[in-house]
Amino acid sequence: MATDTPFDPFSQSFTLLLTDGTPFNVSIPDLDDFILYSVDICINYAAQLGASLVLLIMLALLTKAEKRSSPIFALNALALTLNFIRNVLQCVYFTGPFSETYAYFAQDYSRVPRSAYATSITATVLTFLLLVCIECSLIVQTHVICITVQRAYRQVILVISLLIAALACGVRLALCIENAKYINSLANLVPLTWLSSATNITTTISVCWFCAVFVTKLGLALNQRRKLGLRRFGPMQIIFIMGCQTLIIPAIFSILQYVVNLPSMDSNVLTLVSIFLPLSSIWASSSVDGLAQSPPGSENHRKVFGSYASGSTGLNTDHKATNGPLSPSSSAYGQIGNSSIANPKTSRYQDTHADLEAQDLAAVRVERTFSVARRNGIL
User: If you average pLDDT over residues 151-179, what whole number do you get?
Assistant: First the structure.
């Protein structure tokens, strides 16, 4: 005699009716999944929203007035603003008429106003604009940090950077257009899965490329400084740390979406980058201010900062530099080896802010003494 299947009250279903009176069933587990998904994704977007707002306020309050006109400050502030609005609109979607229980299960969106469609499409467009702001900020900062690199290498780096940024923005634009079409037609987004994955991959590659450039350039400079005995923790180390962080953490979130069942993990990539860039600027600027307020006795040490070319030897005291400054805030510029630093008055990068390398990496102090001896009548 066959045993009856035990009754499971947690898997019950209930019946709803379509507008024409046709019945359909909805199970409790399906309803739970629907509700929990909306809660989980709103928590994710709300956390990004709050972090962006806090960083935007900090950036506005802690950035000096003279640096607020710099392009990097404008791009970082705009990225945070766009990210804040984007996440607000995402939360509005999951608390609006598109996410009502009956509309979702019956796939009946006849009572959804056109304003809700506009909200969803606007959020998609803002995501694209956010990526453009981030890519522009990264390109500007790459140009700044590579200003002392040999011309041929600098041009190659910039060309590759532009191509990678253009590819990431192009794929994101394609997703934005297709997504808007699907939203407007209320079609299923499943066919866009491959395009969404391609967007995530190209964005991650772009961020990793730029951060790898920053970290490599700063790592070489830090290594040269250690050889000269310059071990003090300062803005250059801060930018290096933040560069490594921006290289690793967004990539982790980008990969996690393929192995962890959490909604919209890839949306954190743009948020993390838009937060880390101004955060590195704020931290580096505060370190520069700390160096400027050092004890009076330390002013006897000569302030030097330079880009260290491989194979350079000795200390060159010729200040006829022409390559442009790496530190707009530095009060004195020196030249080490084959690399030179220009007077800030003649540099068109004077207003470029101590962001990812602003190499607001201001004053590096050489805490060594040098002596010159006369031998056989020759100095």
Answer: 93
Q: Which residues pair with 311 in a beta bridge?
A: none
Q: How far apart are CA 197 and CA 254, in angstroms?
A: 10
Q: What interhelical angle do 235-256 and 267-292 show, nearest 10?
A: 170
The 3-state secondary structure of the chain reads CCCCCCCCHHHCEEEEECCCCCEEEEEHHHHHHHHHHHHHHHHHHHHHHHHHHHHHHHHHHHCCHHHCCCHHHHHHHHHHHHHHHHHHHHHHHHCCHHHCHHHHHHCCCCCCCHHHHHHHHHHHHHHHHHHHHHHHHHHHHHHHHCCCCCHHHHHHHHHHHHHHHHHHHHHHHHHHHHHHHHHHHCCCCHHHHHHHHHHHHHHHHHHHHHHHHHHHHHHHHHHHHHHCCCCCCCHHHHHHHHHHHHHHHHHHHHHHCCCCCCCCCCHHHHHHHHHHHHHHHHHHHHHHHHHHCCCHHHHHCEEECCCCCCCCCCEECCCCCCCCCCCCCCCCCCEECCECCCCHHHCCCCCCCCCCCCCCCCCEEECCCCCCCCECCEC
pLDDT of residue 238: 66
Top pLDDT among 258 and 108 is at 108
Confidence of residue 236 (pLDDT cuts 50, 70, 90): low
CB 204 within 8 A of CB 251: yes
Amino acid identity, position 247: L
Q: Which residue has the tokens 């969803």?
A: 120
90 pLDDT more than 80: yes
In sequence order, what are the residues at sequence separation of 6 or more whose Cβ sits closer than 8 angstroms to the Cβ of residue 335? 306, 316, 317, 318, 319, 321, 341
Cα–Cα distance between 294 and 56 in angstroms, integer?
29
- Mean pLDDT, rounded, of the chain: 75
* Sole residue written with tokens 């972090």: 51
